[in-house]
Amino acid sequence: MRKSLIGFGVAGVAAVALLAGCGGGGDMAGMQHSSTTAPPSATGQQDGHNEQDVKFAQDMIGHHQQALDMAAMVPAKSTNPKVTDLGKRIAAAQDPEIKKMNEWLTKWGAATATSMPGMDHGSGHGSMPGMMTAEEMAKLNGATGAEFDRMWLDMMIKHHQGAVEMAKTQQEKGSNADAKKLAQDITTAQQAEITEMQSLLKSS
Q1: Hey, what's the signal peptide range on this chain (predicted)?
Q2: What is the DSSP letter of 113?
């Protein structure tokens, strides 16, 4: 009888040990599962945006559109081949950027250039740095030859300086990686064009 009890006791201890082992294995499996859980998608983080990203895209679209209006005046009014060439390059760079920013706004569920009220870029946007007023645009449109070239260069320098200011704000306060990269690209390209235009003004 005593042997039976001892045997039962050993069997009971073995059973408890077995159950504990199973439970421990389950806990380890759970721990392993949690440790291998994938982190949030890097793409999802890049696609994130904040209010500054939306403001940057909406404002820069209007800013770029006025630059395109100014560039469109050049072929018929300029007498300087270098100014004509620069006008073409500005249009070629900024038109695709407008399309890109409109795509972002659509993706973000924000108002695009075609749906935003008051987006008449010819009327000027005093709240944005570097924008020309309607009166300044009319005066530019009325000039020709060397007078136009000087006026256009002077205005476009100010316009570019405003865009660089807006782009730097985006780099500081924006969240979306693509929008911040575009802001950096705008800063680099337009600062180079400012230097080019200042040189053209000095030689005119």
Answers
A1: none
A2: T
